[in-house]
Amino acid sequence: MTTTSTPSSPSPRRSTCPSWSEGRPTRPSRWWCACSRAGRARRSGFTDGDPLATARAAQLRGTFVTIDEKWRQAISDPLATAEGPWLTGKVAAIAGGGLSGPEGGVGFGIAWLCARSGANVAVLDRDREAGERAVELIRELGVDAEWIELDIMDDASCQTAVAAAKERFGRIDVVADSIGGGSVESILTVSEEEFDATMTLNFKSAWMLIKHVAPAMEDGGAIVTVSSGATEGRGPGMAYTFAKHALEKLTIGASQTLASRRIRVNCVRVGMIWGAFAAKGMTEDRRELRRKSVAMQIEGNSWDIASAGFFLLTEQARWVSGQVFSVDGGGMSAAARGNVGSAGSPDPGKGE
Protein backbone atom coordinates (compact mmCIF):
# COMPACT_ATOMS: atom_id res chain seq x y z
CA MET A 1 0.00 0.00 0.00
CA THR A 2 1.42 3.24 -1.04
CA THR A 3 1.04 6.09 1.34
CA THR A 4 1.37 9.67 0.42
CA SER A 5 2.16 12.43 2.82
CA THR A 6 0.17 15.57 2.73
CA PRO A 7 2.37 18.64 2.61
CA SER A 8 2.02 20.67 5.74
CA SER A 9 0.31 23.96 5.18
CA PRO A 10 2.32 27.07 5.82
CA SER A 11 2.00 28.56 9.27
CA PRO A 12 -0.56 31.30 9.36
CA ARG A 13 0.63 34.81 9.95
CA ARG A 14 0.33 36.08 13.48
CA SER A 15 -3.11 37.64 13.57
CA THR A 16 -2.38 39.47 16.79
CA CYS A 17 0.07 41.87 15.23
CA PRO A 18 -1.70 45.16 14.47
CA SER A 19 -0.02 45.50 11.08
CA TRP A 20 -1.48 42.16 9.92
CA SER A 21 -5.10 42.80 10.72
CA GLU A 22 -7.94 45.11 9.84
CA GLY A 23 -6.84 45.48 6.21
CA ARG A 24 -3.45 46.95 7.04
CA PRO A 25 -0.37 46.11 4.93
CA THR A 26 1.08 42.67 5.61
CA ARG A 27 4.60 43.98 6.11
CA PRO A 28 5.57 43.71 9.79
CA SER A 29 5.59 47.00 11.61
CA ARG A 30 8.84 48.66 12.59
CA TRP A 31 7.81 48.30 16.23
CA TRP A 32 7.38 44.51 15.89
CA CYS A 33 10.67 44.12 14.02
CA ALA A 34 12.56 46.17 16.59
CA CYS A 35 11.07 44.19 19.46
CA SER A 36 11.88 40.94 17.68
CA ARG A 37 15.47 41.96 17.12
CA ALA A 38 15.82 43.03 20.74
CA GLY A 39 14.30 39.75 21.93
CA ARG A 40 16.60 37.66 19.74
CA ALA A 41 19.57 39.66 20.92
CA ARG A 42 18.67 39.11 24.56
CA ARG A 43 18.05 35.38 24.07
CA SER A 44 21.27 34.80 22.14
CA GLY A 45 23.43 36.94 24.39
CA PHE A 46 24.36 39.34 21.59
CA THR A 47 23.85 42.30 23.95
CA ASP A 48 26.65 41.17 26.24
CA GLY A 49 29.47 43.66 26.06
CA ASP A 50 27.49 45.99 23.78
CA PRO A 51 26.20 48.91 25.91
CA LEU A 52 24.22 50.40 23.04
CA ALA A 53 22.41 47.13 22.31
CA THR A 54 21.80 46.60 26.03
CA ALA A 55 20.34 50.07 26.37
CA ARG A 56 18.11 49.60 23.33
CA ALA A 57 16.85 46.25 24.61
CA ALA A 58 16.12 47.75 28.02
CA GLN A 59 14.30 50.68 26.44
CA LEU A 60 12.10 48.33 24.43
CA ARG A 61 11.22 46.46 27.59
CA GLY A 62 9.74 49.70 28.92
CA THR A 63 12.44 50.39 31.51
CA PHE A 64 15.22 52.90 31.89
CA VAL A 65 18.92 52.07 31.96
CA THR A 66 19.89 55.00 34.18
CA ILE A 67 17.45 56.71 36.50
CA ASP A 68 17.57 58.56 39.80
CA GLU A 69 16.49 56.23 42.58
CA LYS A 70 14.28 59.03 43.87
CA TRP A 71 12.01 58.67 40.84
CA ARG A 72 12.16 54.90 40.34
CA GLN A 73 9.08 54.27 42.49
CA ALA A 74 7.14 57.13 40.89
CA ILE A 75 7.77 55.72 37.42
CA SER A 76 6.77 52.19 38.38
CA ASP A 77 3.69 53.59 40.12
CA PRO A 78 2.74 57.13 38.97
CA LEU A 79 0.37 57.53 41.92
CA ALA A 80 2.83 56.36 44.55
CA THR A 81 3.52 59.91 45.74
CA ALA A 82 0.09 61.38 45.08
CA GLU A 83 -0.83 61.29 48.76
CA GLY A 84 1.02 62.49 51.80
CA PRO A 85 3.15 65.58 52.45
CA TRP A 86 5.05 66.88 49.43
CA LEU A 87 6.97 69.70 51.14
CA THR A 88 8.15 68.16 54.41
CA GLY A 89 11.31 69.89 55.62
CA LYS A 90 10.86 72.78 53.18
CA VAL A 91 10.29 76.46 53.90
CA ALA A 92 7.72 78.44 51.93
CA ALA A 93 7.78 82.24 51.73
CA ILE A 94 4.40 83.55 50.61
CA ALA A 95 3.99 87.23 49.73
CA GLY A 96 0.41 88.26 50.43
CA GLY A 97 -0.10 85.19 52.61
CA GLY A 98 -2.17 86.94 55.26
CA LEU A 99 -5.82 86.10 55.95
CA SER A 100 -7.49 89.39 55.07
CA GLY A 101 -11.13 88.38 55.49
CA PRO A 102 -13.52 85.46 55.84
CA GLU A 103 -13.12 84.58 52.15
CA GLY A 104 -9.35 84.54 52.27
CA GLY A 105 -7.22 85.07 49.20
CA VAL A 106 -4.90 83.23 46.86
CA GLY A 107 -1.84 83.96 48.99
CA PHE A 108 -3.33 82.54 52.16
CA GLY A 109 -4.60 79.53 50.22
CA ILE A 110 -1.12 78.73 48.92
CA ALA A 111 0.39 79.27 52.37
CA TRP A 112 -2.15 76.94 54.00
CA LEU A 113 -1.71 74.22 51.36
CA CYS A 114 2.08 74.37 51.73
CA ALA A 115 1.72 74.04 55.49
CA ARG A 116 -0.68 71.13 55.16
CA SER A 117 1.94 69.46 52.98
CA GLY A 118 4.59 69.78 55.68
CA ALA A 119 6.31 73.10 54.93
CA ASN A 120 7.14 75.75 57.48
CA VAL A 121 5.78 79.07 56.28
CA ALA A 122 6.97 82.67 56.30
CA VAL A 123 3.84 84.80 55.84
CA LEU A 124 5.00 87.99 54.13
CA ASP A 125 2.33 90.64 54.40
CA ARG A 126 1.96 94.35 55.09
CA ASP A 127 -1.10 93.80 57.32
CA ARG A 128 0.02 92.56 60.73
CA GLU A 129 -3.46 91.47 61.81
CA ALA A 130 -4.04 89.48 58.62
CA GLY A 131 -0.59 87.95 58.87
CA GLU A 132 -1.03 86.84 62.47
CA ARG A 133 -4.45 85.33 61.72
CA ALA A 134 -2.86 83.28 58.97
CA VAL A 135 0.00 82.20 61.24
CA GLU A 136 -2.43 81.04 63.92
CA LEU A 137 -4.33 78.81 61.49
CA ILE A 138 -1.16 77.49 59.87
CA ARG A 139 0.38 76.51 63.20
CA GLU A 140 -2.70 74.41 63.94
CA LEU A 141 -1.49 72.13 61.14
CA GLY A 142 1.57 71.23 63.21
CA VAL A 143 4.20 73.27 61.37
CA ASP A 144 6.09 76.44 62.19
CA ALA A 145 5.00 79.82 60.83
CA GLU A 146 5.88 83.46 61.32
CA TRP A 147 4.47 86.76 60.10
CA ILE A 148 7.11 89.01 58.54
CA GLU A 149 6.24 92.53 57.48
CA LEU A 150 6.52 93.22 53.77
CA ASP A 151 5.69 96.33 51.78
CA ILE A 152 5.88 94.87 48.29
CA MET A 153 6.05 98.36 46.76
CA ASP A 154 9.37 99.11 48.48
CA ASP A 155 12.66 97.55 47.39
CA ALA A 156 14.30 97.90 50.81
CA SER A 157 11.31 96.21 52.46
CA CYS A 158 11.57 93.27 50.04
CA GLN A 159 15.25 92.88 50.86
CA THR A 160 14.64 93.10 54.62
CA ALA A 161 11.73 90.64 54.56
CA VAL A 162 13.73 88.04 52.62
CA ALA A 163 16.66 88.37 55.03
CA ALA A 164 14.33 88.04 58.03
CA ALA A 165 12.70 84.91 56.61
CA LYS A 166 16.09 83.31 55.89
CA GLU A 167 17.32 84.13 59.40
CA ARG A 168 14.13 82.89 61.07
CA PHE A 169 13.86 79.56 59.23
CA GLY A 170 17.41 78.95 58.02
CA ARG A 171 16.43 78.38 54.40
CA ILE A 172 13.90 79.28 51.71
CA ASP A 173 12.79 76.61 49.25
CA VAL A 174 9.60 77.81 47.56
CA VAL A 175 8.18 81.28 47.00
CA ALA A 176 4.81 82.58 45.85
CA ASP A 177 3.79 86.18 45.16
CA SER A 178 0.05 86.73 44.93
CA ILE A 179 -0.05 90.48 45.55
CA GLY A 180 -1.76 92.61 42.92
CA GLY A 181 -4.57 94.98 42.08
CA GLY A 182 -5.10 98.10 40.08
CA SER A 183 -7.11 100.84 38.48
CA VAL A 184 -9.98 100.47 36.03
CA GLU A 185 -9.40 103.93 34.59
CA SER A 186 -9.23 104.43 30.84
CA ILE A 187 -5.78 104.69 29.33
CA LEU A 188 -6.69 108.30 28.44
CA THR A 189 -7.82 109.31 31.92
CA VAL A 190 -5.56 107.41 34.31
CA SER A 191 -3.12 109.70 36.09
CA GLU A 192 0.63 109.23 35.84
CA GLU A 193 0.82 108.50 39.56
CA GLU A 194 -1.88 105.83 39.35
CA PHE A 195 -0.31 104.30 36.25
CA ASP A 196 3.09 104.07 37.95
CA ALA A 197 1.56 102.63 41.12
CA THR A 198 -0.28 99.96 39.14
CA MET A 199 2.88 98.97 37.29
CA THR A 200 4.86 98.82 40.53
CA LEU A 201 2.27 96.79 42.42
CA ASN A 202 1.73 94.20 39.69
CA PHE A 203 5.07 94.02 37.90
CA LYS A 204 7.98 95.85 39.47
CA SER A 205 7.19 94.39 42.90
CA ALA A 206 7.61 90.84 41.58
CA TRP A 207 10.92 91.80 40.01
CA MET A 208 12.13 93.27 43.31
CA LEU A 209 11.07 90.21 45.28
CA ILE A 210 12.63 87.72 42.85
CA LYS A 211 15.82 89.78 42.71
CA HIS A 212 16.27 89.49 46.47
CA VAL A 213 14.84 86.05 47.16
CA ALA A 214 16.53 84.02 44.41
CA PRO A 215 20.05 84.34 45.90
CA ALA A 216 18.66 83.23 49.27
CA MET A 217 16.86 80.16 47.91
CA GLU A 218 18.04 76.58 47.94
CA ASP A 219 18.87 75.08 44.55
CA GLY A 220 16.00 73.05 43.12
CA GLY A 221 13.33 75.35 44.53
CA ALA A 222 10.36 76.99 42.85
CA ILE A 223 8.75 80.40 42.43
CA VAL A 224 5.15 81.12 41.44
CA THR A 225 3.78 84.49 40.34
CA VAL A 226 0.11 85.34 39.87
CA SER A 227 -1.18 87.09 36.75
CA SER A 228 -4.70 87.76 35.53
CA GLY A 229 -7.03 87.05 32.65
CA ALA A 230 -7.03 90.83 32.33
CA THR A 231 -4.11 90.33 29.96
CA GLU A 232 -6.83 89.66 27.37
CA GLY A 233 -8.65 92.89 28.23
CA ARG A 234 -9.42 95.58 25.64
CA GLY A 235 -11.43 98.05 27.66
CA PRO A 236 -10.68 100.27 30.66
CA GLY A 237 -8.01 99.21 33.12
CA MET A 238 -5.27 98.90 30.52
CA ALA A 239 -2.55 99.92 32.99
CA TYR A 240 -3.34 96.73 34.90
CA THR A 241 -3.33 94.77 31.63
CA PHE A 242 0.11 96.14 30.72
CA ALA A 243 1.49 95.30 34.16
CA LYS A 244 0.28 91.70 34.11
CA HIS A 245 1.64 91.19 30.60
CA ALA A 246 5.01 92.38 31.86
CA LEU A 247 4.76 90.07 34.87
CA GLU A 248 4.24 87.04 32.64
CA LYS A 249 7.29 87.95 30.54
CA LEU A 250 9.30 88.47 33.74
CA THR A 251 8.29 84.98 34.86
CA ILE A 252 9.45 83.41 31.60
CA GLY A 253 12.73 85.35 31.66
CA ALA A 254 13.43 84.47 35.30
CA SER A 255 12.87 80.79 34.55
CA GLN A 256 15.72 80.91 32.04
CA THR A 257 18.00 82.87 34.35
CA LEU A 258 17.50 80.46 37.26
CA ALA A 259 17.37 77.23 35.26
CA SER A 260 21.03 76.40 35.92
CA ARG A 261 20.17 76.20 39.63
CA ARG A 262 17.08 74.12 38.86
CA ILE A 263 14.85 76.80 40.34
CA ARG A 264 11.57 76.63 38.45
CA VAL A 265 9.54 79.79 37.83
CA ASN A 266 5.92 79.63 36.68
CA CYS A 267 2.87 81.87 36.60
CA VAL A 268 -0.81 81.23 37.30
CA ARG A 269 -3.18 83.40 35.27
CA VAL A 270 -6.35 83.98 37.28
CA GLY A 271 -9.84 84.04 35.82
CA MET A 272 -12.85 85.86 37.27
CA ILE A 273 -12.88 84.18 40.65
CA TRP A 274 -14.87 85.03 43.75
CA GLY A 275 -12.62 86.02 46.63
CA ALA A 276 -11.76 88.78 49.06
CA PHE A 277 -10.73 91.18 46.29
CA ALA A 278 -13.79 90.58 44.09
CA ALA A 279 -16.18 90.69 47.05
CA LYS A 280 -15.44 94.33 47.80
CA GLY A 281 -18.56 96.28 46.82
CA MET A 282 -19.84 93.74 44.28
CA THR A 283 -23.61 93.28 44.01
CA GLU A 284 -25.22 89.86 43.62
CA ASP A 285 -26.45 90.82 40.14
CA ARG A 286 -22.92 91.70 39.10
CA ARG A 287 -21.62 88.46 40.61
CA GLU A 288 -24.17 86.41 38.69
CA LEU A 289 -23.25 88.18 35.45
CA ARG A 290 -19.60 87.28 36.00
CA ARG A 291 -20.51 83.65 36.62
CA LYS A 292 -22.53 83.42 33.42
CA SER A 293 -19.69 84.92 31.42
CA VAL A 294 -17.46 81.93 32.23
CA ALA A 295 -17.46 79.18 29.61
CA MET A 296 -18.08 76.43 32.17
CA GLN A 297 -20.79 78.52 33.89
CA ILE A 298 -19.10 77.76 37.22
CA GLU A 299 -17.77 80.35 39.63
CA GLY A 300 -14.18 79.78 40.66
CA ASN A 301 -12.65 80.83 43.94
CA SER A 302 -9.26 81.56 45.45
CA TRP A 303 -8.73 77.90 46.35
CA ASP A 304 -8.89 76.92 42.68
CA ILE A 305 -5.99 79.27 42.04
CA ALA A 306 -4.14 78.32 45.21
CA SER A 307 -4.30 74.63 44.31
CA ALA A 308 -2.67 75.29 40.94
CA GLY A 309 -0.01 77.50 42.51
CA PHE A 310 0.71 74.93 45.20
CA PHE A 311 1.14 72.17 42.62
CA LEU A 312 3.69 74.24 40.73
CA LEU A 313 5.71 74.67 43.93
CA THR A 314 6.03 70.93 44.51
CA GLU A 315 8.30 68.29 43.04
CA GLN A 316 5.29 66.90 41.19
CA ALA A 317 5.94 69.77 38.74
CA ARG A 318 9.70 69.15 38.67
CA TRP A 319 9.93 69.48 34.86
CA VAL A 320 7.65 72.49 34.49
CA SER A 321 9.19 75.94 34.24
CA GLY A 322 8.67 79.17 32.33
CA GLN A 323 4.96 78.48 31.84
CA VAL A 324 1.82 80.59 32.25
CA PHE A 325 -1.16 78.49 33.39
CA SER A 326 -4.67 79.85 32.92
CA VAL A 327 -7.09 78.80 35.65
CA ASP A 328 -10.31 80.38 34.41
CA GLY A 329 -13.08 77.84 33.88
CA GLY A 330 -12.38 77.64 30.17
CA GLY A 331 -12.22 81.38 29.58
CA MET A 332 -15.08 83.60 28.55
CA SER A 333 -18.24 82.12 27.12
CA ALA A 334 -19.11 82.77 23.49
CA ALA A 335 -22.04 84.94 24.58
CA ALA A 336 -19.76 87.15 26.67
CA ARG A 337 -17.00 87.66 24.13
CA GLY A 338 -18.71 90.58 22.44
CA ASN A 339 -19.53 92.15 25.79
CA VAL A 340 -16.11 92.84 27.27
CA GLY A 341 -15.59 95.71 29.66
CA SER A 342 -12.92 96.50 32.22
CA ALA A 343 -9.77 94.42 31.83
CA GLY A 344 -11.53 91.50 30.27
CA SER A 345 -14.52 91.43 32.62
CA PRO A 346 -18.07 91.68 31.28
CA ASP A 347 -19.43 95.19 31.31
CA PRO A 348 -21.92 95.39 34.23
CA GLY A 349 -24.11 97.72 32.24
CA LYS A 350 -24.83 95.23 29.47
CA GLY A 351 -26.78 92.02 29.30
CA GLU A 352 -25.36 88.61 28.49
TrEMBL record:
The keyword Thylakoid does not apply. Residues 1-28 are annotated as: Disordered. GO terms for molecular function: oxidoreductase activity. Keywords: Oxidoreductase. The keyword Metal-binding does not apply. It comes from the Bacteria. CDD domains: SDR_c. Residues 1-19 have a biased composition (Low complexity). Belongs to the short-chain dehydrogenases/reductases (SDR) family. This is SDR family oxidoreductase. It comes from Pseudoclavibacter endophyticus.
